[in-house]
Design goal:
Mean pLDDT: 96
Structural class: alpha/beta
Number of domains: 1
Distance between the termini: 26 Å
Number of strands: 11
Shape: globular
CATH topology: Indigoidine synthase fold
Low-confidence stretches: none
Order of helices and strands: EHEHHEEHEHEHEHHEHEEHEHHH
Bound molecules: pseudouridine-5'-monophosphate, manganese (II) ion
Radius of gyration: 18 Å
CATH class: Alpha Beta
Largest sheet: 11 strands, mixed
Helix content: 40-55%
Length: about 300
C-alpha cells in the first residue's frame, strides 16, 4: 500500500514529531473554483493552517502516487489544469494511479489518504451527500460511506447547499457518524450560517471537540463530521441563495448533466446568479474551516 503513498518531507517531519497536521482536499481547487482564485485560496489555506501552528497537507494524485503535502508548483498545476484533473473518488483511485494520471482528491479520497498517512483531521468547504431526487437517481456521494470507513474528522461548513439535507443526515446516522455543530444547534447551510435542521450535538470549544474525537477513536469508531457555520459577515440570505440554487438546478436538468459535471456547473451558475458573491462566501467559509481544523488538531495533540 505504501508504494502508492508519497508523504512530503515537511508532513513526514510533523508525523514523526507528533505535531498537529491538517489535511486539505484538491477537488475544491480543480473543480470547485475558477483559476486563479482557486490557487490563491489553496495557498491561503496552507498559510492559515501554519499561522495556527499546524502543518498543512494538501493531497492530490500525481504520477502514480498519492501525494500527501504538495509543493506550490504542484498546487499551481492542479489549479491551472482545473477540470482536466480527474475528480478522484474511491472508485477512481486505482484507475488514476495505475494510468499515472493527474487526480484531485474529494473528501472521500482525502479521508482515505489521510487515514493511510496517519493524519486525523481535515478541512474542506462542503461535503457531498444525498442529492435532491435521490429516490429516483440513487445519487448519494461516496463521501458519506467514507465516514463509516476512515477514522478522520472533517471540518466543513455543512453539506453542499445543492443537496437534500434531511436525507443526508439520516444516511450519516445509519453510518454511525456523529454530526457535531461548532457553537450551533443547527446544521449550517453552507452559504448561510443556519438551517432549521438540528445537528446531533453542539460543542463550543476546539478542546471539547478534541476530547470527543479521542473517545471516538479510542472506541475504534471512524469518521466524525464537524459543522462550522460561515462567519456572519460572509453569510448569505438563505432565501436569495436558495432561489439561485433552485434556478441553477432547473437549468442543469434541461442540459441533462450527470455525475462529475454537476457540481462545477451548479457552482458556476450560482456564482453568476449571485454576481460572484457565492464564490466570495465559499472562499471565506473554507478559511474559517482551516482555522477551526488547526485549533482542533492542536488540542488533540495536547490530550493524546
Ligand atoms: N463542495 C463544494 N465544492 C466541491 C465539492 C464539494 O462546494 O468541489 C467536492 C468535494 O471534493 C466533495 C465532492 O468531496 O465534491 C463530492 O462530490 P460527489 O457529490 O460527486 O461525491
Ligand atoms: Mn454523485
Amino acid at each position: 500500500m505504501k508504494r502508492y503513498l508519497e508523504i512530503s518531507p515537511e508532513v513526514q517531519d510533523a508525523l514523526l514529531n507528533n505535531k498537529p497536521i491538517v489535511a486539505l482536499e484538491s477537488t475544491i481547487i480543480a473543480h470547485g473554483m475558477p483559476y486563479p482564485e482557486n490557487v490563491e485560496m489553496a495557498k491561503q489555506c496552507e498559510q492559515i493552517v501554519r499561522s495556527y501552528g499546524a502543518t498543512p497537507a494538501t493531497i492530490a494524485i500525481i504520477g502514480g502516487k498519492i501525494k500527501v503535502g504538495l509543493t506550490e508548483d504542484q498546487i499551481e498545476l492542479i489549479g491551472k489544469k482545473g477540470k482536466e484533473v480527474i475528480k478522484t473518488s474511491r472508485r477512481d483511485l486505482s484507475y488514476v494511479l495505475s494510468q499515472g494520471l493527474l487526480g484531485a482528491t474529494t473528501v472521500t479520497t482525502t479521508m482515505f489518504a489521510s487515514s493511510l498517512a496517519g493524519i486525523k483531521i481535515m478541512a474542506t468547504g462542503g461535503i457531498g451527500g444525498v442529492h435532491r431526487g435521490a429516490e429516483l437517481t440513487f445519487d448519494i456521494s461516496a463521501d458519506l460511506d467514507e465516514f463509516g470507513m476512515s477514522g478522520v474528522a472533517v471540518v466543513c461548513a455543512g453539506i453542499k447547499a445543492i443537496l437534500d439535507i434531511p436525507k443526508t443526515l439520516e444516511y450519516l446516522e445509519t453510518k454511525g457518524v456523529p454530526v457535531i455543530g461548532y457553537q450551533t444547534k443547527y446544521l449550517p447551510y453552507f452559504y448561510s450560517a443556519s438551517s432549521e435542521h438540528l445537528v446531533d450535538y453542539t460543542l463550543n470549544t476546539p478542546e471539547e471537540i478534541a476530547c470527543l474525537l479521542k473517545t471516538h477513536w479510542d472506541l475504534g469508531l471512524k469518521g466524525v463530521l464537524i459543522a462550522n457555520p460561515i462567519p456572519a459577515e460572509h453569510s448569505m440570505d438563505p432565501v436569495l441563495i436558495n432561489q439561485a440554487i433552485d434556478k441553477a438546478i432547473k437549468e442543469m436538468e434541461k442540459l441533462n448533466l450527470r455525475g462529475k459535471e454537476q457540481t462545477p456547473y451548479l457552482l458556476k451558475t450560482v456564482k453568476d446568479l449571485t454576481a460572484g458573491k457565492s464564490l466570495a462566501s465559499n472562499i471565506a467559509l473554507v478559511y474559517n474551516n482551516c482555522k477551526l481544523a488547526s485549533q482542533i488538531a492542536a488540542s488533540y495533540d495536547n490530550i493524546k
